[in-house]
Amino acid sequence: MQITSPDFKQNARHALDDVQLQKALGNVRAGFIDKRQKAVDALPEFEALRDNARDIKNHALENLDLYLEAYEQKVTASGGQVHWAETAADARSIVLDICRTRGARTVTKGKSMITEEIELNDFLDAAGIVPVETDLGEYIIQLRGEHPSHIIAPAVHVNQDQVEADFRRVHTHLAPDRDLTAPETLLDEARQVLRAKYFEADIGITGANFLVAETGSSIIVTNEGNGDLTQILPRIHIVIASIEKIVPTLDDAAQILRVLARSATGQDMSVYTTLSTGPRRPDDPDGPDEYHVILLDNGRSAMLGTEFQDMLRCIRCGACMNHCPVYHSIGGHAYGWVYPGPMGAVLTPALIGVDKGGHLPNASTFCGRCESVCPMKIPLPKMMRHWREKEFERGLNPATQRYGLKAWAFFARRPWLYRLATSIAIPVLGTAGKAKGRFSWLPFAGGWTKHRELPAPETRTFRQQWSQREALKQGGAA
Amino acid sequence: MTPRDAILGKIRGGLSGADDAARRAAVEARLSTVPKGVIPARGQLDDVSRVDLFCAMVEKVTCSVARVRSHDHVPQAVSDYLRARNLPHAIRVGEDRRLKTLPWDDIKTLEVRRGASDGRDEAGLSHAMAGVAETGTLVLSSGPDNPTTINFLPEHHLVVVDARDIAGDLETVMAKVRNAFGKGKMPRTLNLITGPSRSGDIEQKIILGAHGPRAVHVIVVG
Lengths: 478, 222
Hints:
Number of domains of chain A: 3
Largest sheet of chain B: 6 strands, parallel
Pfam family, one (chain B): LUD_dom
Distance between the termini of chain A: 70 Å
Domain LUD (chain B): 81-221
Radius of gyration of chain B: 21 Å
Strand content of chain B: 15-25%
Largest interface: A-B, 103 and 82 residues
CATH class of the largest domain in chain A: Alpha Beta
CATH architecture of the largest domain in chain A: 3-Layer(aba) Sandwich
Largest sheet of chain A: 6 strands, parallel
Structural class of chain A: alpha/beta
CATH superfamily of the largest domain in chain A: NagB/RpiA/CoA transferase-like
Distance between the termini of chain B: 59 Å
Strand content of chain A: 5-15%
Oligomer: heterodimer
Helix content of chain B: 25-40%
Number of helices of chain A: 22
Organism (chain B): Aquibium carbonis
InterPro entries (chain B): FTHF_cligase-like_sf, LUD_dom, NagB/RpiA_transferase-like
Radius of gyration of chain A: 25 Å
Number of helices of chain B: 7
Protein name (chain B): Lactate utilization protein
């Protein structure tokens, strides 16, 4: 996929003007937040579990090499095969090699962000192998030639009438006058179309939510069951997972599972949590004959030992974007690469470079909601600030912004001048905006006021109010 | 240098300064002792209340539940379920001895199909190895006894679980898995199932029956 993160500002402007998208984003604001809160409130141990989940992942990262070795040994012992891929290109060629040597023509896929990251679908298509996405949301966007706009709800930017139009366009073997007005009928149609694909496929590819060092198991967490049909019906199951998915033990996985589903969808457990270990056993009547795991680095090892190591704790629940006012306004595509929202704003510059992804950490007011809901307690705003510093150090932000920051720094270092300037500006703005309490237009601030209003300040500065308050207190005490 | 060595080398580079011997000891300790973590109080109940909680939780995740006194009553419970929903009087079932030895012949006209499912069965029956009261989760392991295809291909999945196998929490079940298959060993597939298949991908409305079963019926024995 073409990286459009450098055009973030333009992407965001288009997103704000996109009527369909704005309608669809209403579903994010409405659904996820309440469901998560209810699930969290129903579990008194949630905070303790968050702390433990964070500690487990920290421990796993501090010993990542050793746990990967232990994991590999267990996969091999259970008859599976581990492949190591330093880059996206390496992972793609391992997949292609397995496909070619087995004469595979069709590949079904469970939902996997890592295969988005390595752009597997386009690559397989070009090699003459047909990839079929089986998660309903992924299937919808594959039909539309799009990429996911959310890491757990890939088609959250699409409205129901658009899905109906896409199904009518692609499923031409079905009666053109069929009734597709209810979402249930759309789901049924996808179920029927895809059911046949599971049986046709030579290879099933899934991602992994966890890799368990204790047993050599890969774990996928889904609600639809598509990931399971993808991995039990074809002859070959390929798991593609990044190296930081490792957890030490089954019990560690059980701990993190408790915070994952609650943070993602507000469920206590997702419908299907599936542990897969090796290929089918000699007396098994079903399951794949071959089991491959591709362990992908693709820039993650370079984050270890840096201020971005904590990001590797991420379990991809999506809570940060579900609670992000910026994501709510512009959706996921504006971020211009695979990972949107706050987690994407931190991860993207690390994986594709701050020169390309540097805008993303700027798309935040540091309101802190992302960190407050992150089940792994990742300090997302702090890491976005680190990226801003790097961007500034490397002179990557535009001249106006640099001069603006320098001008601000000039004032900030001279408190008397700062006080003077604000004591003039604040009463002017405060008086001008008094009637409405906010500005819907301001000279030189059209970029701000086009899509939102600027709250009018009080007529006195904070410091003026503070000294008055202190004076009153003193007066009261006397 | 192999890609494996390159990746492990980069990881070690990033973790430089760490004491390798101490790390190795910590990893070995964690893998052998398996520290327990935080166990929510919700499922930590006496035997009767734990089974009650399990039943309440599986209903909460939109399964239906039937409770029977012994395994001998399972065939009737299966038949009742199929008839109540006007389904064909046939059930797909694996080789599990707890299900195989039941008085199926007592139920006239019920067709019992043995082995893995090929996708043409309306209803399948499995025996869970455990249940988790905390979340209403069923735990099923693959193999000839309970082929994994039965968990996903039929529209209706009926699952028998022995009340004695209902644990308070998932960690207790993981200990049982270690016990059953050996430490560090697993069946090919271990399915933790919490409700029927569903999707929220169309405008975030939850609809049941995405790719797996549209309905899950839990039969608790004992």
